[in-house]
Amino acid sequence: MKVVIVGAGEVGFHVASRLSHENKDVVVIDKDGDAIRRISDNIDVQVITGSGSSPVSLEEAGIKEAEILLAVTNSDETNLVACLVANIISPYTKKLARIRNADFDKYHAIFRDHAPHIDTLINPEIEVVKTIDRLMNMPGAVDVGNFANGRVKFIGINLDKEARLAGSRLDEIPALLGKQGPLIAAVIRDEELIIPSGDDRLMPGDLVYFISEEDKILDTLTIFDKHAEPVKRVLIVGGGRIGSRLAVLLDDKHVYTKIIEKNPDRCAKLAEKLNKVVVLHGDGSDQGLLKEENVQETDFVITLTNDEEINILASLLAKRMGARKTITKISKFSYFSLMSMVGIEQVVSPRLSAINTILQHIRRGKVLSSISIKGEQAEFMEAVALETSEIVGKPLKNISFPKGALVTSIIRNDNIVIPSGDSIIEPDDRIIIFATRQAIPKIEKILTVKLEYF
Amino acid sequence: MRWRYILNVVGILTLFFGLTMLFPIAVAFYYKDQSVIPFLKSIGITTFAGLLLHLCFRGSRVEIITQREGMAIVSIGWITIGIFGALPFYLGGEFITFVDAFFESVSGVTTTGASVLTNIEAVSKGLLFWRSFIQWLGGMGIIVLSIAILPFLGVGGMQLYKAEVPSPTPDKLRPRIKDTALLLWKVYVLISLLGAILLLIGGMSFYDALCHTFTTMPTGGFSTKNASIAHFDSVYFDSVIIIFMLLAGINFSLHYQMLRGKTLAFWKDSECRFFLGTIILLIAIVTFNIHGAVYENICQALRYGAFQVVSIITTTGYATADFDQWPAMSKLILLLCMFMGASAGSTGGGMKFLRVMLYFKYCYKELFSMIHPRSVTHIKIGGKVVPEDVTRSVLGFLGLYMGLFVLCSVVLAGMGVDFVTSFSAVAATIGNVGPGFANVGPALNYAQMPYLGKWLLIWCMLLGRLEIYTIIIFLVPEFWRK
Fold first, then answer.
1. Among A73, B127, B282, B363, which residue is least crowded by beta carbons within 10 Å?
2. Which residues, 6 or more positions from B11, have their beta carbon under 8 angstroms from its beta carbon?
3. Percentage of chain B with pLDDT > 70?
4. Same structural domain for residues A367 and A448?
5. Which value does ipTM take for this structure?
6. Which candidate in B69, B174, B182 is best for mutational testing of the A interface (most A CBs within 10 A)?
7. Where does a domain end: A301, A332, A352?
8. Is A46 within 8 Å of B175 when comparing Cβ atoms?
9. What is the CATH number of the domain that holds A67?
10. pLDDT tens for residues B249-301?
11. B64 touching A, CB under 8 A?
12. Which residue among A42, A45, A46 places its CB closest to the CB of B64?
């Protein structure tokens, strides 16, 4: 499968790296020679220096044979033109574009059905706001993802020292709780991914990933000693595009929200747009201002400025001054592994959101969506079991699954089953699979239709 | 520097190289000659050494190879292959000292074609086949071959590819490096096959046709005959070999484009135009120069002149005439050819036409900006602007090439070798050509070189094949700093 990526920025780089690891043919186009060199030095892909919206570069990249075009430059206009040009040269190529300007929000459907025929428009800001909303409603969760329209979620939590389950073996958990515990798909300990078996122990400080149905989530979280507390007061630092989208959302939900923004013009615009939200002009890392605005009484401080270092420091400051929880926006991937070390738990990243959205559209077979967990070592994938694929019709234990892959749930006629070795997947079931990066190509193969049926 | 990983990869390469010895063993068995035992010993030693290295240092998996590590793997790999390639020669008893066997082996894998053998026809068929076969492996590159068929290199392949492929800016023909390498080898095998068939049609024996194809396509120049191609004395063979030497001297990505149906690919590429144009011009000059002085007949002058110019400029090194006896002007033109070399991305050696062309354009740009001091100009090749850093690296390369040529010639002369012999021997080995002038001329060979001189020339051959930087970087103290 050939994929052409326009834009060698952080998103382009990471998607290219992921796809090349999965043995796909990737061609990256960018104007910036340095960005191109960074890609060609680190990833096994073809590179072309040139403008991604130019028909010449796109033809050179072989857009005609490409199955997918990804337009992820910083400029919405370049992305749109690249799709437009690709639509002329190669109408059958699937097109994905990142469009950030909120003015285009209402036109996503039109772009799909008319001229550029962009199959998917990705707005990472909308995705980030959704993620923040999910994190706020999930006490203690560090990472949340939705499947089956939100009816099944995967959740990542940090196990506290005082938690009941800390130190216990997985096969002891049912006895400890007196009932079946949640399905633990993965544990991240010291940045290393572990797929636990019955005799592995949960240790304090582990990042534990599990799957749960939506209506049982709060019960499940109490197992890990995370208790729901209603969100009443929120302070947003940074009134940029994400900040104002979030403020609008919280405004509608009647959460008491304050927003701090440095730029006075921007403040004026925010005040114009928002009704009950308190718009404050000032610096989010100003201790005096935070104190004045009662940061110690706040449930959530969410730092969303464009400067990630300021976000990190403002979150730390707020936490120290007594804010209950913080959510920090970070773009640089190299910072992710540092976050738990400095004491920042919940992190969102527009780029990671964009990458997740892109990947779920690239997956083969009947994959409906796929979401990477923190650190991108593994993915949860939701897929429809095709009648002709290898996984249907026999007990799970008889299927040769690659190492590092696990069926975490089966959704059949609105019922959710947590499978055991004897479970059988039936045609048209939806399944949620957890797979490490190495196992993904094999899983894709298993999910696609067997060749003899063609 | 992760030495464990580097040695692990070198181990795999050695193991792989050892397995290629199965081909000459088959030949030796077929002709029932005395080289079977030495080959069996060599394959045993080589595969065992490779396996040992691999097993000792296994378990060190890495995702990304740095440029420095790539260069280390390639140069250590080539030296190792040179050593193990020498085993059959040494154990076969044709060579008295190991340095002679090593010289022949490195001359083979680097596609130089300089020999220390005085009577080639007395050597067993199995060994002569091996001599040709290692040239063929080295031509497109043993590491490119391993990238193509061994799955272990993965992402790091690009660094290795860059360090081995003779071009200032290696092309990536397909998105994945593995596919690119495989494609290059497919094109290489295809053209080789065509060459072998044409030689067979001309009536050459199957063995000779195969051996000569194996040394024409990598622009190597080893022959199975004492008199080289002159032995056959046939216009047909001369012209077939001229054509295939030219093909081997052209960038292989152009062959790929040709095979994909872009028939004008050769013409559209400015380097290829320059390459073929220069050859025609030089052939004309040499023909007129040797006409009358050596050959009475103009057709004969053209036949020998054309063969020799093409053979030297593509750095093959076959001979159909003793060009050491030609007039000074022709000899100087052939010397110039040794430096220019073939095209970038071909199997030939030398400086490469792309670099020479870039150098001329750079000089013109300098002159131009003296006339128009405020002008803004770029160096363009084929309508595309050449990035500043590529120009800089090319100028550095040319400087180093000439500098090392002078230095090595002086050192060789210091060992008591005469004037013409010493500089032509260095020019012919650093350019991977083979024969030089005077005592290393086409009628003679490198057997009389002093002991240390042979080591120096071995180093020159490796320098030339891996394009200076990959080898010379080992001598820079900064390279070893942690």
1. B363
2. B49, B50, B51, B52, B53, B54, B55, B56, B57
3. 98
4. yes
5. 0.74
6. B174
7. A352
8. yes
9. 3.40.50.720
10. 999 989 998 888 888 888 888 999 999 999 999 999 999 999 988 888 999 99
11. yes
12. A42
Nearest CA in chain A to B179: A25
CB contact under 8 A, A45 and B176: yes
Nearest CB among B67, B175, B177 relative to A27 is that of: B175
Nearest to B157 among A25, A41, A44 (CB): A44
Residues A74 and A164 in one domain: no
Q: Which of A64-68, A366-370, B239-243 has the lowest mean pLDDT?
A: A366-370
Q: Cβ B172–A47 below 8 Å, yes or no?
A: yes
pLDDT one-digit tens code per residue, B225-245: 988 899 999 999 999 999 999
How many inter-chain contacts (A to B, CB under 8 Å) are there? Answer: 34
User: Which chain B residue lies closest to A18 (C-alpha atoms)?
Assistant: B155
Question: What is the domain range of residue A199?
Answer: 144-223
Query: In this predicted model, what pLDDT tens digit does every residue of A106-124 receive, in sequence order?
Result: 888 888 888 788 888 888 8
Measured in whole angstroms, the distance separating CA A426 from the mean position of its chain's CA atoms is 29
A15 with A107, same domain: the answer is yes
Nearest to B155 among A26, A27, A44 (CB): A44
Q: Encoding tokens for residue A43?
A: 């990833």
Number of independent structural domains in chain A: 4
B158–chain A Cβ distance below 8 A for any pair? yes
B382 close to A (CB below 8 A): no
**CATH code (residue A414):** 3.30.70.1450
